[in-house]
Amino acid sequence: MAAHAPVDDSAALARLVASVAEHYGTLDVLVNNAGVTRQIPHADLDALADELIDWIFRVNWRGAFASVRAFRALLAGGDGGLVVNISSIAGTSGFGSNVAYCASKAAWTRSPARWLARIAEDVAETVLAAATLLRFTTGAILPVDSGRPLG
């Protein structure tokens, strides 16, 4: 089952948790893939309005946290669950659409992947591999970055 819920809506997350619990009883894999941003030059601090900063952190940081918090009991059931946080290279490199976005991605997890159309399938396959093959891997960062940090 794949499901969507706005990560900045705790009531929607609670409804989703109840639905998953009713149908499955446990949760094997939680993929946090939400992310928002707006292009603003890093040096233009005045253009980075408080409302934009709050929105970015509400979705990118608090949303991932809220999802794990909401699903933690279901993740602990069964064989234990896997949480995959799709982040951005901006979280480790500091290069991204704006400074708040980079900070929001660094605040939750280091960058496991960069969402580019040419690697979306690789990201999905990495999530599948982590869920099915890497059963004893925990706390690991799996970079799916096409070698980007190498230059």
Level-2 CATH architecture = 3-Layer(aba) Sandwich
Percentage beta strand: 5-15%
The gross shape turns out to be flat
Name the CATH superfamily assignment. Answer: NAD(P)-binding Rossmann-like Domain
Series of secondary-structure elements, N-terminal to C-terminal: HEHEHHH
Q: Which sheet architecture does the biggest sheet show?
A: 2 strands, parallel
Q: What is the name of the CATH topology?
A: Rossmann fold
Helix content: 40-55%
Question: What distance lies between the first and last C-alpha atoms, to the nearest angstrom?
Answer: 38 Å
Major β-sheet strand ordering: 1-2
Mean of pLDDT = 84
Q: What class would the helix/strand composition place it in?
A: mainly alpha
- Which ranges are low-confidence, i.e. pLDDT below 50, for 5 or more consecutive residues? 110-117
Number of strands: 2
Give a written overview of the molecule.
The chain is mainly α and 151 residues long. The chain has a single domain, classed as NAD(P)-binding Rossmann-like Domain (Rossmann fold, 3-Layer(aba) Sandwich). 46% of the residues lie in helices and 5% in strands. The chain has five helices and two strands; from the N terminus they run H-E-H-E-H-H-H. A two-stranded parallel ribbon has the order 1-2. Strand 1, helix 2 and strand 2 form a beta-alpha-beta unit. Helix 1 packs parallel to helix 2 and helix 2 packs parallel to helix 4. The protein is flat. About 5% of the residues have low confidence.
